[in-house]
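Proteins fold reproducibly. Consider a sample protein:
=====
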Amino acid sequence: MQAIWTSMSGSVEAGLLYALMALGVYITFRILDFPDLTVDGSFTTGGAIAAVMINAGYSPWLATAAALAGGLVAGSLTGLLHAKGKINGLLSGILMMIALYSINLRILGRPNMSLLGMDTIFPPIERDRRWMLLIVIAVVIVIIKLLIDAFLKTDLGLALRATGDNAKMIGSFGANTDTTKIIGVSLSNGLVALSGAVIAMQQGFADISMGIGMIVIGLASVIIGEALFGAKTVFRATLAVVLGSIVYRIVVALALRVDWLESSDVKLITAIIVIIALVVPTASRSWTMKKQAYKRSRELAGSEAGR
């Protein structure tokens, strides 16, 4: 029982930390309708910057802020390629992701860098008092979520949402859609890099391949959250993303307890979860529509027979 509780608390903690990345993915994929693959690179950028600065003796808080700034720059470059370079959004993200692999390797100087024994934003804490750290992390994530909600209700945030809904329409009202796209993609990758930094500190190392598959994990969190908790309002949608990230981590942890599954199957499990989360709601809506059509046809046939 103790082992299960430890596993679940660890999954919730990881889910909360990865929720920052999922919120970033939500901004590009749901709000901007922008297929940004920069995420796989900017996640590693955040971890690499934090690891290098902490090893160099800088404050872990300063290192975290620098990681956030690095993500903002990476996202703005992707936005510039798309908005000003007129390069397809998907291709812009792929190009930046490829470029970031070499940049991240330059930042790290080697394939991985340890943070064991270094001061990080996570203080050393006894195992039986781990729940206190979990509460602090949850409060911080909620504050960040509320700040994002507040931003999306400002004039700039509303322009950002309108750009994703109908860029031509908002452009006809005088809004600069290029600027909103750049800001949106930049903010998204800033959150992703922030997540990469805190994950690197939590796990005790930064690795050049730590960002591989992050875009799929982020999408899984968004899709699961929306399917389970809904997304009718901004507040509810961002909350659903955070909860979806936690649910995703718990599902993966439970799946890995199955005897014939190994830790190397995480990516496969993620893909299956995303497929199920995409297919089930669509199949459910299709089944409901068919039932309604069948019911209407029966009612019509009954009314015609009674004439």
